Amino acid sequence: MPDATIRIAAAGDIHCDEHARERVEAAFARLDGEADILLLAGDLTTHGRPDDARVLAGACRGLDIPVYAVLGNHDCHSERDREVVAIVEEAGVTVLEGSHATCEVRGVEVGIVGTKGFIGGFPGSHLPDFGEPLLRRVYAATSAEVAAIDRGLREVALCPVRVVLLHYAPVAQTLEGEPPGIWAFLGSDRLGAPITEHEPDLVVHGHAHAGRFEGGIGDVPVFNVSVPVMGRDFWVFELSGAERPTTPIH
Q: Residue 89's closest CA among 62, 119, 121, 57?
């Protein structure tokens, strides 16, 4: 197996709109030569409008590296998420919606499993599969996200490097700093079950703007790459095709 170092840039909650155009375009231009893959962990737009998506599309067209994204809650706000997806995909972005993709970097196959994730809480605040039908549909939606992560990780099981890309948090550690009363709306540890089973090399998510950068599920590192948490436009992680990922570098 080739012993190559792969640089993965990641960011969530970039909230593109016309007001952010200059900032977003400058940030993406600075990625040139800094990363091999770009992951966008949801909330690509401010209100999920086509015009917001066009700002991101314009920034991505100049990139010469593969870009993978998942949707976030902001991208669904205007109920025009199908248009958002079409616009950014036309610009070369691969939007993962309960699916997976692979790419090759310096002879190493990288498998990326991506889905939005959803809510449901953590120990002490779990939403149960019981009671009112509307709440049970919420539980079922999270179940579908869990199944998608499991299915994707099975599909990329033979890839030397495997990454899970989410918007909602799969672990409570990266929510620390957010009011505990809203943690149930920021993610669910149910999303972590297939991560525990399949042990990918890296998990990134966003959504929790006041959360903590670094956490983990067993030996799997989990990072909250929300821009407000990182205090920068992107974080670049180095992963090896021959061993566990190294510490994030910048």
A: 57
Widest CA span in the chain: 53
Rounded Cα distance, 89 and 54, in Å = 11
DSSP 84-109: HHHHHHHTTEEE-SSEEEEEEETTEE
Q: Please tell me whether residue 20 adopts helix, strand or coil conformation.
A: helix
Per the listing, tokens 């909330």 go with 43
Question: 214-217 and 220-224 as β-strands: parallel, antiparallel, unpaired?
Answer: antiparallel
- Model pLDDT, residue 1: 42
Position 101, amino acid: A
d(CA 229, CA 208): 8
How many alpha carbons fall within 13 Å on the CB side of residue 211?
29
Q: Are the CB atoms for 169 and 185 separated by under 8 Å?
A: no
Q: Is 167 helix (H, G, I), strand (E, B) or coil?
A: coil
Q: How far apart are CA 165 and CA 221, in angstroms?
A: 12
Count of alpha carbons within 13 angstroms of residue 203, beta-carbon side:
31
The reported pLDDT for the residue numbered 201 is 98
| Spans of the chain, pLDDT less than 50 | 1, 244-247, 249
Dump pLDDT digits (tens) for 25-61.
Answer: 999 999 989 999 999 999 999 999 999 999 999 999 9
The pLDDT score that the predictor gives to residue 17 is: 97
